[in-house]
């Protein structure tokens, strides 16, 4: 496991999640909102296991 660290923190980041700015959110989320929700829920389930 490759951990990154600072003076008081350690972390192991495996996912890069990008949230759209407010003005793009309606365009993007309107089209694929359900798909994004399914993907995020599946990632949460996988992390808990």
Automatic annotation (TrEMBL):
Ranges for domain Transposase IS200-like: 10-45
Q: Please provide the Gene Ontology terms (biological process) for this protein.
A: DNA transposition
Q: Which InterPro entries match?
A: Transposase_17, Transposase_17_sf
Q: Which Gene3D superfamilies match?
A: Transposase IS200-like
Pfam families found in the cross-reference section? Y1_Tnp
Under Gene Ontology molecular function, one entry of this record is: DNA binding
What this protein is called in its record is: Transposase IS200 like
